[in-house]
Amino acid sequence: MAKRPSDRWNTDSRRRFLQALAGAGMGSMLGGSSLFSLPAFSSPVQPSPAFEIVPPSASGISWVHVNGRSPMAHLPETVGAGCAFLDYDNDGWMDIYLVNSGPCDFYQPAKPMRNALYHNNRDGTFTDVTQKAAVPGDAYGMGVAVGDYDGDGFPDLYVTQYPHSILYHNNGDGTFTDVTAKAGVAAPGWATSAVWFDYDNDGRLDLFVCRFVDYSKTKLKFCGDNLTGERFYCIPSIYDPMPCWLFHNNGDGTFTDVSKQSGISQSPAKAWGVVAADLNNDGWMDLYVTNDTVPNFLFANRGKGRFEEIGLLAGVGVNVFGKPRSGMGVDAADYDQDGWVDLFEANVDHEMFSLYHNDKHEVFSDLALPTGIGAATRLMSGWGLKFFDYDNDGDLDLLLCNGHPDDAVEKRVEGVRFLEPMLLFHNTGKGFENVSPESGTIFSKPLSGRGLALGDFDNDGSVDVLISQNNAAPILLKNNLGRQNHWLGVRLVGTKANIDAIGAKVTYQSGDLKRHQFTVGGGSYLSAHDPRIVLGLGQRTKVDWLEIQWPQPSGKTERVAELPIDRYITIVEGQGKWK
């Protein structure tokens, strides 16, 4: 009988323990820090919570999301919106982009509405530069994807909307230009999450856009109390699925819709989230798409521009009873350091979230229950989420942003709340521990959480968090814990590979600590993240070496030594050095 992934974790743990004991003695073992060994040092006294809310009075972020809630209960009202960290002016400091709703067939705002771009003032405050930058949005906004599609060194913005989306080209002078028509990426319909990635290994960033159901004001269906006529937000099962979009980057500022010839459109979707990663280690970027009330998709990239949908075969399409769930937030990372990228999916209440361990050979096992994540999320509804090393100990932890989509759910479902708190799971090396209660007041605060973006806005090496709420103000969280350990931040710049280095693998050695991280495309929900990688060192004071395996069409492996710590560096493909 094949071993379960959880058994393999335990087997590896015992094997590494015995090897270390035989090779270095008990004293060295107690000081070691392999993923499954004992901690290398005792935790320092924590003078402040791991995460601290930065109030608008301190940050200068006064913008508030408005959903335009109506008695008709149009479904887009309750599911937005997203947020992003990006360095739009290349000054080395993360700026913030926030998506709002806006005019469409079912909503005409009484006052003009807009998205918001906030410039980082480098002192913990931000300035609203939306008008100058010309990135307000022009429809009912959903999410945002950030990528340098033309390789000019400045990140561009793709804003998903209903009933059409918009591409803002970064002009490099603090302003953007709407190039949607020229580029051919309007994606008519209801778009949700999107991701930039290089699906055909030509070195240019292509664009995948999630599409939700076939929806319009005239197609609104009644869900609610037949006696009183009160409407509730509908479960999406009553709406028809629609195919997602895949746009190929032509390299001249235009894109070609290849949804049909690539095989993407053969799978009608009700898609909320997407992440791009090489899940089978074959050198081609795959896509994992979370769907609501229809099976999730795992689009395996077979090369030559073709994808094969294998979600059901891979064990990530439905639950153990063969039933589709309400897949929303999603991410991908190698949380157990076995060299294979794993998946995480957030669902709606009574469905539990899923931690999909990659068992190789395009098969996954759901370890949510044995890790304790299943029990903790049984009554939760999850949206934005991300794997990251919040305490810089070298292991990838997990942060979840929650909130039910139905604002009337408490009237009908016992134990389920519309506003829900966030959850934080610490990677112990043997599993995940729910450390939410001791990690700050934010984890006891009920939220209408939707988007979640990661970014180190103060450049202290402690990766911070931005939460977007539905019909409420965003929340900026400062990470106080990461800077208690040493770290190295790395920005990768591809030359032959795609400029954002999506699909790269970064491996590093620091004394007895050896770890790797994969750069994935997208992840979370409707949101985009700081492109820099932060490598946690614990209390170690030196990085011996760092190795980058660049994605195709490069495929090069470069090793860099004599590295600094506790600062950010840039590594450009082919230069063999850092700066």
Describe the structure.
- The chain is mainly beta.
- The protein contains eight helices and 36 strands.
- Strand 18 and strand 19 form a beta hairpin.
Write the layout of secondary structure elements.
Layout: H1 5-31, E1 51-54, H2 56-59, E2 83-86, E3 95-98, E4 116-120, E5 126-128, H3 130-133, E6 140-147, E7 156-162, E8 166-170, E9 176-178, H4 180-183, E10 191-197, E11 206-211, E12 245-249, E13 255-257, H5 259-262, E14 271-277, E15 286-291, E16 297-303, E17 306-309, H6 311-314, E18 330-333, E19 342-345, E20 354-358, E21 364-366, H7 368-371, H8 373-376, E22 382-388, E23 397-402, E24 423-427, E25 432-434, E26 449-455, E27 464-469, E28 475-479, E29 486-493, E30 505-510, E31 513-518, E32 521-522, E33 533-538, E34 545-549, E35 557-561, E36 568-572
Parallel strand pairs: 29-36
Antiparallel strand pairs: 1-28, 2-3, 3-4, 4-5, 6-7, 7-8, 8-9, 10-11, 11-12, 12-13, 14-15, 14-32, 15-16, 16-17, 18-19, 19-20, 20-21, 22-23, 23-24, 24-25, 26-27, 27-28, 29-33, 30-31, 30-34, 34-35
Main sheet strand line-up: 17-16-15-14-32
- The geometry reads as globular
Overall strand count:
36
- Please give the alpha-carbon distance between the first and last residues: 51 Å
**Integer-rounded radius of gyration:** 22 Å
- Helix and strand content put the structural class at mainly beta
- Kindly state the percentage of residues in helix: under 10%
The percentage of residues in β strands lies in 25-35%
State the low-pLDDT regions, or none: 1-42
Please summarize the sheet with the most strands: 5 strands, antiparallel
